[in-house]
Design goal:
This protein is an all-alpha fold. The protein has one domain: MetI-like (MetI-like fold, Orthogonal Bundle), CATH 1.10.3720.10. Strands 1-2 form a two-stranded antiparallel sheet.
Length: 310
């Protein structure tokens, strides 16, 4: 007797649980008021930027506005300066987020495990994040100066009169150091929230089974923190991609340290080119969306599956 059997499933398409669908719907309802309010506040500036981006419009000649279509976008995308600033921006983002993820995880482990003076330690770690970015930028600019700064005296093999802002590589490193120092506490705070969600029973069970500390870290802690890590990386990557303050304070864009945000500022504020500046701001917005999409796709986090709920 011949029986019909269902064909075997093909492909690697993930199965979305009912719990995950319910959480997605709940999440959409919860964020809907914030999205509506944000759109009401930002819709006009965004639409205005898109409108101005299709004009050759300069504040020095406001009556000579000329419709140029996508010419500003084509000019930006074919200009080597745009791609140079894009490369520097991506470098800022990748290096700072990677370093902050490692250091922030260490700080989170310390804050999570410490028993004595827990409040003092957590407050001390979070102090840099509470300092205004411009203030910390000036502080680090002073620290890296060859005349009065302390960095050259502390680092072995560095000449006392070495000028960190005299070339691109060293200037970029100085900016990255100031950015990492300032925002690592934010990363550690997000990771600390992820560590608090890990069951101690699960860690004790792994230890009873003979797992070493490194095995518990890689097989238990990190996999169960995947959602928290994604949120931390996403928030910091989007913020790092829009870096402006430290560059403005420490180098003012000299030595090829400009980011896309700084290039947009220079075109709009310093050169009064509202058309080109608006086009750059639109490209910056689209690239931020692309970065967010890539990070979410990379992690592929299912919150219900992460808690083993169906």
């Amino acid at each position: 007797m011949t029986t019909l059997t269902a064909p075997a499933p093909t492909g690697n398409k993930p199965v979305i649980s009912d719990r995950s669908r319910a959480e997605n719907r709940l999440g959409q309802k919860l964020i809907a008021p914030a999205i509506v309010l944000m759109l009401l506040v930002t819709a006009f500036p965004m639409l205005r930027a898109i409108y101005l981006s299709v004009f050759d419009y300069s504040l020095t000649a406001p009556d000579d506005r000329e419709f140029v279509g996508l010419s500003n976008y084509l000019t930006a995308l074919t200009d080597p300066l745009f791609w140079q600033t894009t490369g520097i921006t991506v470098l800022y983002m990748v290096v700072t987020v990677a370093v902050e993820l490692v250091i922030g995880f260490i700080f989170a482990m310390v804050m999570h495990r410490v028993i004595f003076a827990r409040g003092v330690i957590r407050t001390s770690i979070l102090i840099p994040y509470g300092i205004v970015t411009v203030v910390s930028g000036f502080a680090w600019q002073f620290a890296f100066t060859s005349t009065n700064g302390f960095v050259n005296g502390w680092l072995p093999g560095i000449s006392a009169d070495f000028n960190w802002f005299g070339e691109t590589n060293s200037a970029v490193i100085a900016i990255m150091v100031s950015e990492i120092w300032k925002t690592t506490p934010f990363m550690s705070l997000l990771l600390l929230a992820g560590l608090a969600q890990i069951s101690e029973d699960m860690l004790e069970a792994a230890q009873v089974d003979g797992a070493t500390w490194w095995q518990r870290l890689w097989k238990v802690i990190i996999p169960n923190m995947r959602a928290a890590i994604m949120v931390a990386v996403l928030f910091r990557a989007l913020d790092a991609y829009r870096i402006f303050d430290n560059i403005f304070v420490m180098t003012n864009g000299a030595q090829k340290t400009e980011s896309i945000s700084f290039l947009t500022y220079r075109q709009t504020i310093e050169q009064f080119q509202l058309g080109m500046g608006s086009a750059l701001s639109v490209l910056l917005f689209l690239s931020v969306l692309l970065v967010a999409f890539l990070i979410v796709r990379l992690f592929r986090v299912d919150l219900a599956a992460a808690r083993q709920e169906g």
